Amino acid sequence: MKFTPLTHLTEIQSIPTSGARAVEPFELDGMRLLAIPQLAYDVPGGGIDMNGGDSDTDLLLMRRGDKEYEPFQRIPAPGGEDAEFFRVGERAFLAVASIRHGKGPYEYTTDSHVLEWDGETFRPFQSFRGFAAKQWKHFAIGERHFLALAQGVVVPGHEADNRPSQIYTWDGERFVHLQDVDSLWGYNWHAFTLDGNHFLAYADHVRPSVLLRWNGERFEPYQELADRHGRAFADFTVDGTTYLLVARLQSLSQVLRWDGGKFVVHQTLPGPGAREFAVVHGQDGTVYVVRVNFVLGTPADPTTALNSAVYQWHNDELTLVETFATTGATDVAVIPEEHDLLLAVSNSLTADIRFSGRTVLYRFTR
Q1: What dihedral do alpha carbons 247, 253, 259, 263 form, nearest 10°?
Q2: Residue 1 above 50 pLDDT?
Q3: Which residues of 337-357 are buried (b: 16+ CB within 10 A; e: fewer)?
């Protein structure tokens, strides 16, 4: 395949958001929607603090109009870190992870909610008491539905309040606890099937990120994926070989290759700061990977204005083909449309460390 780097991203819309931590596209009742959870609002006259602000926030629901996404609904969701849309049969749900509430000092022991669509809006369905919740992930094995919550953070004075990450399963009426996952500062999950095995990758910031395997009753440890600084995962397959991307914030991210029994390091991607990956499949079979970078430095002195990246799979490795400006980027999502493919990128901070950033939509040229 001839390698021809191109400009792939064209900005088409910029949505005002505040501390946006994720962007979740989905279709519902003929509507194309985006759910954007928000961590915090800027406090008038307040100081500069990437972990500060007013966390009594709303989740934004945006609906695709004739030309762009427009405001649709606001849903109370304090300290919003993640939103996950899923279905169980004909029922539609939106799970929202809340890391905290308050204006400082913050309460990290707080509820995260699963909401159900009633035909007009999302209404409360089930609540889960957690500690510093970061991400929900829904997945299914056969007819069985699971919902996993990554949570936890190291906060001085709250050590006894920290909780393990947890996996729930649907009992026909609601989600019930299945098992805990050993963790300290949980961030993310990624479920996939490979060689007849159902795997669940789990990211932790201070403990090892691990790969779990379903044994028919519970998820058991299978292998370590990274020693620390785990943030997120994505997978893709080329010529029959499966690769697993491991995003790490304060270490180098990696591309792991499945060797038939375990994942081994295939490639190391330069530079720390990675927060999320998205895989884009070109119309000619080309594989692209979009990486968004969050911050460099320390919470007391962060650098948020960073270049994020587009890679192309070429000669058995990811090759950088484009960079684009982001500020505290937290998520990237692929949105297929009838004639286009869009990418949505949530920016949680501005270059001067304020929360009033933008969630940006790009047209991706394949």
Answers
A1: -50
A2: no
A3: eeeebbbbbbbbbbeebbbeb
